[in-house]
Amino acid sequence: MSGLAAPLTRVRRGPRPRYAAAGAGPVAYYTLVAAGAAVVLLPILWAVSTSLKTAGQVFAFPPEAIPRPFAWGNYAEAWSGTVPFDRFFVNTLVITIVPVVGTILSCSLVAYGFAFFRFPLRNLLFLIVLATLMIPSQVTVIPMYIVFRYLGWLDTYKPFIVPAFLADSAFSIFLLRQFFLTIPLDLRDAATIDGAGPMTFYWRILMPLSRAAVTTVAVISFVSRWNDFFGPLIYLSSIPKFPVSLGLSFFKTFYGGGSGGAGVPHMEWLMAAALLVSLPTIVVFAFAQRAYIRGVIMSGLRG
Amino acid sequence: MTPRARREALTGFLLILPWGLGFLAFTAGPMAISLGLSLTKWDILTAPQYVGLANFANLWRDPLFWTALRNTLAYTLLTVPLSLAGSLTLALLLNRRVPAVSVFRALFYLPELMPTVATAIIWTWLLNTHFGLLNYLLSRLGLPPVAWLESTTWALPSLVLMGLWTIGGNRMLIFLAGLQGIPEELHEAAALDGASRGRRLWHVTLPLLSPVIFFNLVLGVIASFQVFTPAYIVTNGGPADSTLVYVLYLYRNGFQYFQMGYAAAMAWVMLVLLLAFTWVQFRLMQRWVYYEGGATPG
Fold this sequence. Notes:
The complex is a heterodimer of chains A (303) and B (298).
Chain A: H1 6-9, H2 26-51, H3 55-58, H4 73-80, H5 85-116, H6 122-132, H7 137-151, H8 158-165, H9 170-181, H10 185-193, H11 198-209, H12 211-227, H13 230-235, H14 244-255, H15 267-287, H16 289-301
Helix pairs in contact in A: 2-15, 4-15, 5-8, 5-9, 5-12, 9-12, 12-15, 12-16, 14-15
Chain B: H1 3-37, E1 40-41, E2 49-50, H2 54-61, H3 63-94, H4 101-113, H5 116-126, H6 133-140, H7 155-164, H8 170-180, H9 184-192, H10 197-225, H11 229-235, H12 246-256, H13 260-288
Antiparallel strand pairs in B: 1-2
Helix pairs in contact in B: 1-13, 3-7, 3-8, 3-10, 3-12, 5-11, 8-10, 9-10, 10-13, 12-13
């Protein structure tokens, strides 16, 4: 599996570059691709431009591309103004990183069980794991809400943390199991002969060998939890506990200019906040691109 | 069972125990509760009241249920084919051995990384009728402004447009991996036989890629049926319920009107619909998906 991401990120060495259409040269090809990229990037550039404008320039028409002057203070306002985004960031780190650790620990143990041990009903149980991938979260959200309410977990972080420690990510179990299956059973037998118990083998040999797969699980679950909106919307209600996704939605009601907000719309603060919130996942992607892409492609292999 | 095998089985069971508990507590249990709830009328505060199939009968008579279903189907019918075609075109374009191609792949991927709420807020501003960039660009082309988010005609297509922003995302990467799994020799052989670029695409690439197209199609339908965040943030279902999608209506019933039984019934209808769609797609698959030597999909 470790070879999977390679063809994507690496430009394969060929005899010479091949461009779009027969006869079309590099100029035509790069013009086409760059034009496409410009269209895709336009919303982001527009948001960056707006986020640096003064309140007066935001509503200029026709719109101006370059902010004059650059109002860097908008980012300070978005970060720790009336709506406490710094707080939302810390909250999101808590309900992202703790569950990611839970997912790695619990899902790797479960995957270890499925990959290395024979027990009755193993294949049937693994099929059930795969089947849960297909169940939309909306089907279980109503009863989950009721269960959490009964347990007194509403408006706490327990609905995000406890399930993660009980291996609620079927995709992570699948991905880790596929990786573990490539590790020879002989290795475990050799470790057993040397007197290592199952947990010693798991912690000392299996996990260090599986660093690539563990990184993939970590970055994929980090991004999906950081971006999650539906869960926090249902389970959290007090503003100081909001993560960034929910905070951003609250920010929009507050500064979007609609009813129930502060009255005056502040698009420059909204854009600054939206960009700040997007930054961590982009940074994670930039640093762990290979591991991340491998995860995306693995999700395409389970079909 | 030998004592050793028994010990191995016991260790295996213990290792998968966390999943077993989680599955019972957070998947199987809730689904059973949800099925039971769908037969009750319950506002959370007072005791639930058994009403049989009344929730399902009421859904059948609820005009908003049909509006939500119609909007979701329209959204799916627009989004899935357009985004599949867009992602595939982009994958074909970026599947070249040329310098800087990985930079472009990363740029096209960028929107997929952004939280949906952030995307929704940026697009709300972009599509603003009076000050938005899109209407400004239209005016430069001599076209009149469009009330993107304020007209019942354009609000749903606006959400589709927003969804198409991620054509360079996960779907594209999966297509790209599929394309790179196609042996080079097949193309070269077809080219030697005098097949044009278009014919090679139609007769070699697409058939070999069909399992991947099928996978993206099935998952695309499931995902777009669950669309919620853009409709909630950008338009909140409006104007005049023109973007009231299924999950938004489910959310309102459950968490704004506290009709838990009714919302649970909606959730089960959704699950059955998705299973039916998927089943139909698997039936139709045999007509167009090509599996080399009967190999397993993937």
